[in-house]
Design a protein that fits this description.
The chain has about 180 residues and is of the alpha+beta class. The chain is built from 3 helices and 5 strands, in the order E-E-E-E-E-H-H-H. Strands 2-1-3-5-4 form a 5-stranded mixed beta sheet, with no helix packed on it. Helix 1 runs antiparallel to helix 3 and helix 2 crosses helix 3. The longest helix is centred in the last third of the chain and has 32 residues.
C-alpha cells in the first residue's frame, strides 16, 4: 500500500519532497532527523464540479498539525480546493464562443455562402416583381428561419452579458438555437 505523503523541514516549513510514506506499515520513521517530519496527504472532499469558463480551480495545500483521520500518529498535509471567478472579459469571450458554436451548428460555414448567394438571387427576383418558384420559396423560408434563430442567439448573447455585468453567473450553454 503506497500512501502519498510529504516530507517537510519543521524549522522553516520547507517542503523537501512529495513521495509515498516510506514505511508500508505506516509506523513512525525511526532515525529521521528531528527537524524533518512526514505528513500524510489528506483531501477532505472531492474536487468540486465547476464551469471552467467562469471559474478557475485552485488547489490549496497546507501543512497542518492536525492528526490524519486514518493515521492518528501522523499529521496531515491537507489538500482542499477553491474557485476564483474569472475576469468578466474572459467570461464574455466564452459566451461569444458559445454563440458562435450554436450558430455554426445551425448554419455550418460550408452552407452559409451557398445559402446567401441563392438568397440574394431570390431577393433580386422578388424585387423585380417575378414570381418565385417553389424551390425559391423554400430558400426564402429557410433564410428567414435561420435569420430569426440568429437574432435569438444574438439576443441570448446580450442577455448573458447583461447578467454578467449585473454580477450574476450566466448559464453559458442555455438558450441557444442550434438547429
Amino acid at each position: 500500500m503506497s500512501v502519498p505523503a510529504v516530507l517537510i523541514r519543521t524549522s522553516n516549513g520547507e517542503i523537501i519532497k512529495h513521495d509515498v510514506y516510506p514505511r508500508e506499515d505506516m509506523a513512525l520513521v525511526e532515525g529521521l532527523d528531528p527537524d524533518l517530519k512526514w505528513l500524510v496527504k489528506f483531501t477532505p472532499f472531492v474536487k468540486p464540479d465547476y464551469d471552467s469558463r467562469i471559474f478557475i480551480l485552485r488547489q490549496v495545500e497546507e501543512v497542518t498539525t492536525i492528526a490524519h483521520p486514518d493515521y492518528e500518529h501522523l499529521n496531515q498535509y491537507k489538500i482542499t480546493f477553491e474557485t476564483e471567478k474569472r475576469q468578466d472579459a474572459d467570461i464574455e469571450t466564452s459566451i461569444a464562443n458559445a454563440e458562435q458554436d450554436a450558430n455554426q451548428q445551425m448554419l455550418p460555414a460550408t452552407r452559409q455562402l451557398k445559402l446567401m448567394a441563392l438568397g440574394l438571387g431570390v431577393l433580386f427576383r422578388a424585387l423585380d416583381g417575378l414570381e418565385l418558384s417553389s424551390k425559391e420559396k423554400v430558400i426564402k423560408d429557410e433564410i428567414v428561419t435561420k435569420a430569426t434563430k440568429l437574432w435569438k442567439n444574438d439576443n441570448n448573447l446580450r442577455n448573458k452579458i447583461t447578467q454578467l455585468a449585473q454580477g450574476e453567473e450566466p448559464e453559458i450553454d442555455a438558450g441557444w438555437e442550434k438547429e
